[in-house]
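Everyone, study these two lines:
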Amino acid sequence: MEAAQQHQQQAQIAIERLTAMAQGLDQVVRQEIRSAFAEEFQTLGVASRHAAEALHSVRRAASVRLALWAIAVIAACSAIPAAIAWTVLPSRAEVAQARQERDELAATVARLREQGGAIDLRRCGSAGRLCVRVERSGPAYGTHADYLVVAGY
């Protein structure tokens, strides 16, 4: 029995050693897991920073491209109407010449009006004879009184 008790004590000592070793091993495993997690977390943090920097550079590039496109569209939208206006609208010299012609034509019309340009002539009757509107209240002129004053003069 003493031998069994001795074996039992040795087994108890071995179990205590194994328990202590298991606890030590458990702490070692936990420490290794923590250090592995910390390393992976740091690696993940570095990768996240690199990804964020890449996204910022992509955003800057996209902003520059958008700005260039906006400038190009604005320039095109401004240049096309300006080019059309430049080709369609008359120049200052043409406007001045047109004003001068208008003034000359207005003077010619006034002179023609004074010289009988406002006479109301029509074709009358079935034969289409040339007729003029006269003032009936005005005096008759000529040796045979066959001239009358034209209406409006």
In short: The mean pLDDT is 90. DSSP finds two helices and four strands in the chain. The first strand starts at residue 121 and ends at 124. The radius of gyration is 57 Å.
